[in-house]
């Protein structure tokens, strides 16, 4: 999208507002599918990245399945028209009862711990399941998004394979898939390929596999010149290894991935208006009409989002610290070089498609912003801005017989 188009969205829908570019989502999906030359490829979009139903419908129209981590995400996928067999459900730490509820919906079950695996196998040995393996490989941009290491809560340790196989044998359950996810923002495809070899070795223990799921974690660029995962190189190397494995296995399996951020991050821009320019003895602050309640990633992960002044793009650059209106430290970027900012200007935050609205909250009793999809050259509202009624809709007000004055008199 152009800066002019982004400004038109801010003018029509107000600020703050999330904007997603359907064309970018589509091109990312096609880039990924074109990189892997296998007979059977399945992409499951990680719903947790951005769960708006219109986004799920768009991806479904492209032939994309869904990766879900909750009963509610499965229901969203079904509401969006995704076939249940194209939805994989990979929860962590949920009850057996929730898993059984998802079974009723028809999604593919993926189990990541021995306790639930044994319970599920004893109660439902006829239902095929996938198993999530922890390969004990450290990968990911930071500790919060690295999930394949030895201290991770995710997956069944590769060193517990004898125990896992004993459960499968004792329950008579059927294993139709094997899965891993090492972390997000993977830079070194060598690490990914190393973990893949561990998964291939584990797969040899199961004779009824239909698919091998390698998770995702592919890195996107966050700033100009930034490093990203070389999908084409990974595709070339993993395709050859996967096809050779299928020949040795004696069966054509499906190669599966679960990208979230890779598909939607770069599609998104978050637009906010500058409320005030505040000069202190050491810093020039640009205070905007939003906060970490709407874009928590910089404060939570230390993540970088490029910030541009789309109202005054040709002006001389100055240095600003861009901060929000939350009553806590609420910094989006410190000492950033941005075209001169004036009160009332619209700032655009890039890479706002993933884990931005989906992690938004009503902290400070602020409304969550609307979402807009730019599709076929037009802006389409896909979520309305919240109102005060939304804040209070599920609250139950109590009535107190004693007035504050009567309480004070008793004291």
Gist of the model:
The chain is α/β, with parallel strands linked by helices and 411 residues long. It has helices at residues 3-13, 22-35, 53-61, 71-79, 96-105, 114-123, 161-171, 189-203, 231-249, 261-264, 297-301, 388-392, 404-410; strands at 17-21, 41-46, 65-68, 87-89, 108-111, 129-134, 156-157, 175-179, 211-213, 254-257, 268-279, 284-288, 307-309, 317-323, 331-339, 346-349, 371-375, 378-383. Helix 6 (114-123) packs parallel to helix 7.
Task: Provide an overview of this structure.
The protein has 411 residues and is α/β, with parallel strands linked by helices. It folds into two domains: 22-263, Alpha-Beta Barrel (TIM Barrel), CATH 3.20.20.10; 265-386, Lyase, Ornithine Decarboxylase, Chain A, domain 1 (Beta Barrel). Helix content is 31%, strand content 23%. It contains 13 helices and 18 strands. It has helices at 3-13, 22-35, 53-61, 71-79, 96-105, 114-123, 161-171, 189-203, 231-249, 261-264, 297-301, 388-392, 404-410, and strands at residues 17-21, 41-46, 65-68, 87-89, 108-111, 129-134, 156-157, 175-179, 211-213, 254-257, 268-279, 284-288, 307-309, 317-323, 331-339, 346-349, 371-375, 378-383. Strands 1, 11, 12, 13, 14, 15, 16, 17 and 18 form a nine-stranded mixed beta sheet that branches. Strand 2, helix 3 and strand 3 (65-68) form a beta-alpha-beta unit. Helix 2 packs across helix 9, helix 6 (114-123) runs parallel beside helix 7 and helix 8 packs parallel to helix 9 (231-249). The longest helix is centred in the middle third of the chain and has 19 residues, at 231-249. The N and C termini lie far apart (63 Å). Residues 139-149 have low confidence and may be disordered. Residues 23-265 form the Orn/DAP/Arg decarboxylase 2 N-terminal domain. Pyridoxal 5'-phosphate binds at residues 217, 355. Residues 18-353 form the Orn/DAP/Arg decarboxylase 2 C-terminal domain. Pfam families: Orn_Arg_deC_N (PF02784), Orn_DAP_Arg_deC (PF00278).
């Amino acid at each position: 999208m152009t800066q002019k188009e982004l400004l038109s969205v801010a003018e029509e829908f107000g600020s703050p507002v999330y904007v997603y570019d359907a064309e970018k989502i589509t091109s990312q999906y096609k880039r990924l599918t074109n990189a892997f030359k296998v007979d059977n490829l399945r992409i499951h979009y990680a719903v947790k990245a951005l769960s708006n139903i219109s986004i799920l419908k768009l991806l479904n129209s492209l032939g994309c399945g869904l990766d879900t981590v909750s009963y509610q995400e499965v229901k969203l996928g079904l509401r969006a028209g995704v076939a249940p067999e194209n939805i994989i459900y990979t929860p962590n730490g949920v009850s057996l009862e929730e898993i059984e509820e998802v079974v009723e919906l028809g999604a593919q079950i993926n189990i990541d711990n021995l306790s639930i695996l044994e319970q599920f196998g004893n109660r439902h040995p006829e239902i095929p399941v996938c198993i999530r393996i922890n390969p004990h490989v450290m990968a990911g941009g930071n500790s919060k998004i690295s999930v394949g290491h030895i201290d991770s809560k995710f997956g069944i340790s590769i060193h517990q394979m004898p125990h896992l196989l004993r459960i499968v044998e004792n329950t008579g359950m059927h294993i139709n898939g094997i899965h891993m996810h090492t972390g997000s923002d993977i830079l070194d495809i060598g690490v990914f390929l190393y973990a893949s070899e561990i998964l291939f070795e584990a797969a040899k223990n199961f004779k009824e596999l239909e698919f091998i799921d390698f998770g995702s974690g592919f890195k996107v660029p966050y700033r100009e010149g930034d490093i990203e995962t070389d999908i084409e190189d990974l595709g070339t190397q993993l395709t050859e290894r996967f096809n050779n494995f299928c020949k040795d296995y004696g069966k054509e399996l499906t190669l599966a991935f679960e990208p979230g951020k890779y598909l939607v991050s770069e599609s998104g821009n978050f637009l906010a208006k500058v409320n005030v320019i505040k000069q202190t003895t050491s810093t020039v602050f640009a205070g905007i009409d939003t906060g970490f309640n709407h874009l928590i990633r910089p404060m939570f992960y230390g993540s970088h989002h490029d910030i541009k002044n789309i109202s005054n793009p040709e002006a001389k650059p100055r240095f600003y610290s861009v901060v929000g209106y939350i009553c806590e430290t609420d910094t989006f970027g410190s000492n950033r070089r941005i075209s001169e900012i004036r009160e009332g200007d619209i700032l655009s935050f890039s890479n706002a498609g993933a884990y931005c609205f989906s992690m938004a909250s009503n902290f400070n009793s602020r409304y969550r912003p609307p979402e807009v999809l730019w599709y076929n050259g037009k802006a389409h509202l896909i979520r309305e801005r919240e109102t005060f009624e939304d804040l209070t809709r599920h609250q139950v007000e109590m009535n107190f017989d004693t007035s504050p004055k009567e309480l004070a008199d008793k004291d």
